[in-house]
């Protein structure tokens, strides 16, 4: 991460969680998001430094059985509750057809795929809001392929998708790929694929750097305070990109998109005012003609037509 802002933001989000002061000039990215902990030998996997590196615990996920576990949830389950050290879950390439839940009691987890080819490591599921579980209708939040309620979460080099395709005007088609509710999370070179409500960026302070986010209807939504820097935002049909849910002027939440690129098919809006005081900023972004001239929607509620003073 060569960008000074990115390094400082990562130091703030992750370093504070290590229980000591950090000099942002000395933060090493490899502590959290590289493959330096492993090397391949004769088709096997060898851990460097006895499976630990820079104070981090290493868990390897491999569908072919050459790691510690075969599933990502299995790796999360190995992390003890109320853990206070960085745990790096290294995921070997493959399509992992599972839902992954990281509870609030398991902070400091990193999910690490292939930094250069995030499309090779995929977590995939297919729930939608109108689907039923044993205790009733799922609703939006429980559709998530990846649910993160823990603080100090990191991810890099992975794709998370919800394969449900929203029908125009369809009811109960919300289908979340990632639901992030923990505080101080970082996503670097990740891909989020879906249709409606792809990324439920709901609670906490989060940083998305050089990520790819795809959807159609309100596909970045929630009430977090997040910075999206150098990301590609791809719309696959008519709808809206951001639906931010700030309901009070006293809430310190909102989405900032900086140096992002907006691409896609069909005509869409930059955002819809889901909350009474929704706050979304696009700065220094490359915005293609996929965006409708009107730019924004007030959700058909006139009181939400506000601009900064």
Automatic annotation (TrEMBL):
One annotated GO biological process: pectin catabolic process
Family indicated by similarity: Belongs to the pectinesterase family.
Pathway assigned to this chain's UniProt record: Glycan metabolism; pectin degradation; 2-dehydro-3-deoxy-D-gluconate from pectin: step 1/5
Organism expressing this protein natively: Cuscuta epithymum
Keywords: Aspartyl esterase, Hydrolase, Signal
Enzyme class (EC, first level): hydrolase
Cited SUPFAM superfamilies: Pectin lyase-like
Keyword Lipid metabolism: no
Residue intervals of the Pectinesterase catalytic domain: 59-300
Designated name of the protein: pectinesterase
